[in-house]
C-alpha cells in the first residue's frame, strides 16, 4: 500500500476516486455525485488547490482510498472527504490515511478533527479505533441538516 500526496496536476486521478466514492457511499458526504460528475477540469483543479492536503492510497495501480485535510480555525485540521474502496476495507487503508492527515496536522501544531454522520456506524467505529473521541453534535448544528457528530483525535 502506498500513500501519495496529490495536487492540481493530478486532477484526473482525484476525479476518478472522488466520483467512485460519491457513487459508492452517497450518504457519507456533503457533496453529491450529481454535483461533480459533469464538473469542468478547472473545478477539479480548484478543489485540489483550495484544500491543501489530499492523499490517495494505491494498491499496485488501483486507487483504493482518499482523504483530505483542511485547516479549521487556528487549532485544528479537519479530516474531510475520506473514503476507502469496498475491496480495501478492513485492510488498514483507513488507518494509514488517518495517520497521515494527523501527522500533517501535528507538523503545524494542530489537532485533527472531523465531522461524521450519526448513521455512519462503520466510519464512526473506524475513527474511534484510530483514537477519535466523539464530542457530539455541535450546539449550532442546523435543524434542517442531517445530523453529524464532531470527533477529535486524542493521542
Automatic annotation (TrEMBL):
Domain N-acetyltransferase residues, every copy: 12-154
Superkingdom assignment: Bacteria
Keywords: Acyltransferase, Transferase
Gene3D superfamilies in alphabetical order: 3.40.630.30
UniProt entry tagged with the keyword Cell inner membrane: no
Keyword Acyltransferase set for record: yes
Pfam families per record: Acetyltransf_1 (PF00583)
Database matches in InterPro entries: Acyl_CoA_acyltransferase (IPR016181), Bact_Acetyltransf (IPR050832), GNAT_dom (IPR000182)
Full protein name: GNAT family N-acetyltransferase
Source organism per UniProt: Terrabacter aeriphilus
Amino acid at each position: 500500500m502506498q500513500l501519495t500526496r496529490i495536487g492540481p496536476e493530478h486532477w484526473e486521478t482525484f476525479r476518478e476516486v472522488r466520483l467512485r466514492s460519491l457513487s459508492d457511499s452517497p450518504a457519507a458526504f456533503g457533496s453529491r455525485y450529481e454535483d461533480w460528475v459533469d464538473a469542468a477540469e478547472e473545478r477539479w483543479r480548484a478543489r485540489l488547490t483550495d484544500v491543501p492536503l489530499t492523499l490517495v492510497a494505491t494498491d499496485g495501480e488501483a486507487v483504493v482510498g482518499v482523504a483530505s485535510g483542511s485547516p479549521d480555525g487556528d487549532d485544528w485540521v479537519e479530516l474531510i472527504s475520506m473514503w476507502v474502496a469496498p475491496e480495501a476495507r478492513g485492510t488498514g487503508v483507513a488507518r494509514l490515511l488517518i495517520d497521515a492527515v494527523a501527522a500533517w496536522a501535528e507538523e503545524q501544531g494542530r489537532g485533527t478533527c472531523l465531522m461524521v454522520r450519526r448513521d455512519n456506524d462503520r466510519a464512526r467505529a473506524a475513527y474511534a479505533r484510530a483514537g477519535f473521541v466523539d464530542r457530539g453534535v455541535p450546539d449550532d448544528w442546523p435543524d434542517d441538516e442531517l445530523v453529524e457528530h464532531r470527533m477529535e483525535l486524542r493521542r
